[in-house]
Amino acid sequence: MEANIQLAKKLNVWATVITIVVLILIGLMRRVKVDLPAGWDFSFLPPFHATVNALTAVVLLIAFYFIKQKNIEAHRKSIYLAIGLSVLFLLSYVAYHFTTPETIFGDANHDGLVDAAELAAVGSMRTIYLVLLLSHIVLAALILPFILFTFIRAYTNQIDRHRKMARWVFPFWLYVALTGPICYIMLMPYYV
Q1: Is-contact 67 79, C-beta < 8 A?
Q2: Is the Cβ–Cβ distance between 155 and 4 less than 8 Å?
Q3: pLDDT one-digit tens code per residue, 87-104
Q4: Is 0.85 topped by the overall pTM?
Q5: pLDDT of the residue at 1
Q6: pLDDT tens for residues 18-46?
Q7: In angstroms, what CA-CA distances link 19 with 5, 28, 56, 127, 168?
Q8: Nearest to residue 56, comparing CAs of 178, 152, 192?
Q9: Among positive and negative, which fits the CA dihedral 62, 68, 70, 76?
Q10: Residue 151 CB: number of other CB atoms within 10 A?
Q11: DSSP code, position 145
Q12: Which of 3, 11, 48, 54 qualifies as a FRET site for 87, CA 20 to 30 Å off?
């Protein structure tokens, strides 16, 4: 048991470092742009991101089903898959935003601004989109370390602590995985 606690402490440090690095990257990706080599274009990635997020949500629901059935091994494999999908999403998302101009909800003429006419055309849908997007981004940033810590609790066989954390981490992770595709669907008409 002591070895598991020591391993958990080391993994917690790594989870904290990973969280800090991810938050720094997320903070920089809208400010720093990297030019891609001629002929390269990452504009195909937003639907990929939405698909990966949607698959993550499905896998999380499957993992939830398995744990309710007390099928620990299937639950474990599902969670590994959900984490793998989340890592794939994150790497792809960061690469996209470091290399591609931002798409703005309501910017029908793609000039980087939402003028009065465009704002009138989208009406309250822009507010709904921005609330969903803001909640998605804030919760994604906040939940990341807790997803890692919850995983570490299970990995180091601290099952009671894992269960306590998973009860409240799961719904937030699921919310983030679901709102990503919803935001994409709402933003789809404004991609170039």
Answers
A1: no
A2: no
A3: 999 999 999 999 988 899
A4: yes
A5: 62
A6: 989 988 988 888 788 888 888 888 889 99
A7: 21, 14, 19, 29, 19
A8: 178
A9: positive
A10: 21
A11: H
A12: 3
Residue tagged 């939405």 (tokens): 50
- For 52, half-sphere exposure in the C-beta direction (CA atoms, 13 angstrom radius) is 18
pLDDT of residue 41: 86
User: b or e along 63-97 (b: 16 or more beta carbons within 10 Å of the residue's beta carbon)?
Assistant: bbebbeeeeeeebbebbebbbebbeebbebbeebb
Q: What is the DSSP string of 97-126?
A: HHHSPPP-TT-TT-SS---HHHHHHHTTHH
Q: Are 126 and 107 in contact (CB under 8 A)?
A: no
CA distances to 44, 48, 150, 187 from 102, in Å = 14, 16, 33, 11
Could you count the other beta carbons within 10 Å of the beta carbon of residue 131? 10
96, amino acid identity = Y
Cβ-Cβ contacts under 8 Å for 54 (sequence gap 6 or more): 177, 178, 180, 181
CA 86 to chain CA centroid, Å, is 6
What is the rounded CA–CA span in Å between residue 116 and residue 95? Answer: 32
